[in-house]
């Protein structure tokens, strides 16, 4: 069981709920084909061990949920890979048996306590705990929650509307982690902007996927952006034109990343990506050379 003390911004409390943190088989040249292959070893002094393992030449994998308590509402941002899923073309996410729900309970939250589940997008590693296996059926893990899903992603990842190419890593994901929630009547699709309360609003931030979303937090002058996979690695802060190989629209992904990083730098916003190790969330500044630098890390226990 992993526990992680929260960070407080204004009246909002944010806790990192771990699903997995450890080795990954992925190399930088696979996940970030745009990146300079020499950059990773050349910057191992700060990338290793939080983000990169120089000894093996592979990336560090981190899967977690951001647990937000705001105005009495319990909110989960992204739900990892889930346990027991069949992922024939993404074996790294298949047949997990992690202590995610125990870690959530250690943060004081049972599945029944969750009011809102946010999927920033519908990739395999962001919707897994939307459902759990009950007998032979996938059922909603959070039976009292409303699940907020960007409609462009809901339409894009539905294999009936948009057949996926052979070998697609997102195979089965819509069927086992989205449709059971839809059938239970728990999904609210949204477009453009969706306000949750006076402190939190979802806005579209397309590029990584057509419906990728950013969650904005504003409480008593403290601000944050939950950016999902607009940032996979801090290398994309230093080099904002570096996409992951899973960015569906490369040009739009770069533009969205630059727009959000500039806003975070201008407005002193804490940035919460989906998969950062190390301090997990950070503030950024303009570099002065059309890119960005990491100013400081949030006060989370380092992973
Ligand atoms: Zn992801």
Automatic annotation (TrEMBL):
Residues 62-275 form the Metallo-beta-lactamase domain. Keywords: Hydrolase, Metal-binding, Zinc. GO terms for molecular function: hydrolase activity; metal ion binding. SUPFAM superfamilies: Metallo-hydrolase/oxidoreductase (SSF56281). The keyword Hydrolase applies. SMART domains: Lactamase_B (SM00849). It comes from the Bacteria. InterPro entries: MBL_superfamily_lactonases (IPR051013), Metallo-B-lactamas (IPR001279), RibonucZ/Hydroxyglut_hydro (IPR036866). Belongs to the metallo-beta-lactamase superfamily. PANTHER family: QUORUM-QUENCHING LACTONASE YTNP-RELATED, QUORUM-QUENCHING LACTONASE YTNP-RELATED-RELATED. This is MBL fold metallo-hydrolase. It comes from Acrocarpospora macrocephala. The lineage of its organism: Bacteria, Bacillati, Actinomycetota, Actinomycetes, Streptosporangiales.
